[in-house]
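Our consortium's second objective concerns turning raw sequence data into structural hypotheses that experimental partners can test. To show how far this objective has progressed, the report includes one record in full. It was chosen at random from the queue rather than selected for favorable results. The single chain below, 379 residues long, was entered without modification.
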Amino acid sequence: MADPTVATGGVGVSVGAARGGVGSHVRGGDTPLEVSKRGSAQRFQPGSPRVLVAGATGFAGALAAHLLWRHPRFELAAITGRSDVGSRLDELYPRYRVPLRVQELDLDELDGFDAAVVAYPHAAAAPTVGALLDRGTRVIDLSADFRLSELPTYEHWYGTHPRPDLLERAVYGLTELHREQIAAAAIVANPGCYPTASLLALAPLARAGLLADVVVDAKQGISGAGRTASLDTTHLSYTAENIIPYKVAAHRHTPEIEEQLSLLGADLRVQFQAHLVPLDQGEMASCYVTPTRTVSAEELSELFAAAYDDEPFVEVIDAPPGVREVRDTNFCRLFAAADAHTGKLLVFSAIDNLWKGTSSQAVQNLNLMFGLPETEGLL
């Protein structure tokens, strides 16, 4: 992989797949003027960790590349894809303004990266994660390959695991729950978007021993289905003005939610149901909880305040949130209420499924892994 950079003063300026050396080269015949018309060159501090995004042509990978391209403390050194090889990312996703060309992943040329974001589907990700680890690269994996700690559970929901030997090296990447472990991890298993919203809503109740029964009714925009169009899920004529439950009683994020709640002291089965709604981005998890005892509105408010007052990306608010409020941000907005009539607790959690639900949370975790402020590049 070629690695061109221009170094200017105390800032590295990248106009292609970049390495911190001196010299100017714009990949694929693009002139610096052509690059500048589409977006500014990448600026990063000298000595910044070099990051690869593998799978940059999908929604999650492209957004990760965008966030790293504009990040002041990471160098986006290369992007690869399983499709669109040779295309510039700003041609595939003009709004992201990343003028790098998509390269084919060559496992023999993976040296020299400090970190990688792997945005492949489950089972396809694990071999690449292993190859990167063998070369000393720390990895954020956006797939489900390392989210579940028990191999039998993974195999029940996903099938054969390509690298079960790596499971014990992975840390679950919900930042607000596992901050210290993430900072030292070799593999961070970025959570699924639904578990991110659901667990942030339920964690304070789980820690307090208040979960007797949980129903999560979650709704997500079409981008959660990925870039590849499907006639019965993402076709406009099927999804417009429609709400569609999917993977009924069989959603793979269920064991992920249950395992993390168990680690917080709540060992129970969760009734989880996902719905596709006619939005691009956005996700709402409506959580209906039967508590183990009566909980007042005042106690509920105190629990959530204690859990999240010091969290930079979790906002506990006084009215139900909407998904527009968090679009294109790393924020989660929560509203909790106690129903005096039924005795149940209701918690509503809004995130952007592509941001906090996937790619910006990956950058939040990368910040931790390299000793940077958690909010760097995300506010």
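The partners drew two points from this record. The first strand starts at residue 6 and ends at 8. The chain has eleven helices and 16 strands. Both points have been shared with the crystallography group to help prioritize constructs.
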